[in-house]
Amino acid sequence: MNHETTRRELLGHAVRGAGLLGLGGVAVYLTAKAGDEGVWVLDISKCVNSRLGATGIEACELCATSCVRPLSAVRAINDFEKCGRCYICPAYFDVMSEVDENGLPSAKLCPRDAIKREPIGWVDPDDPANNFYEYTIDEALCNGCGICVLACKDPSGLGSILLEVRYDLCLDCNRCSNAAACPDDAIDRKPLSRAGAPQRHPAS
Amino acid sequence: MQYRQVRVISGKGSQPEQFATALRGIALDRTGALYAVGDSEVKVFDADGTLRRRWPTSKPGYCVAVDRDGTVYVGQERQVQRFDDAGKPLDAWRDTERMGLVTAIGLIEDNVLIADARDRCIRRYDKRGRFRNDIGKDNRTRGFLIPNGVLDLAIDAEGIIHAANPGRHRVERYSLEGQLLGRFGRFTGPDPRGFSGCCNPTNLTVTRAGRVVVTEKAGPRAKVYDATGKLLAIVANDAFDQNCKNMDVAVDAQGRIYVVDTVRLHICVFTPMDDRAASEPASAPAEGATKP
Amino acid sequence: MKRSALLAPMLVLLTLATPTESLYAQYERPVDVAPTEEDIGSGYVTPAVQRPLPRSTLLNITDIVLLLGAMGISAWLGLVRRSRTGIVVLAIACAVYFGFYRKGCVCPIGAIQNVAVALTDPSYAVSYVVIAFFFAPLVLALLFGRVFCGGACPFGAIQELVVLRPVQVPRRLDKALGLLKYVYLALAIWFAVLPAVERDFIICRFDPFVGFFRRTGPAYMLIIGGAFLVLGMFVGRPYCRYLCPYGGLLAQLARFSWKGVTITPDKELDCGLCAESCPYGAIEKMRAVRTSCLSCARCYTACPRERAPARGDASVESHEATG
Question: What is the ipTM score, two decimals?
Answer without folding.
Answer: 0.84
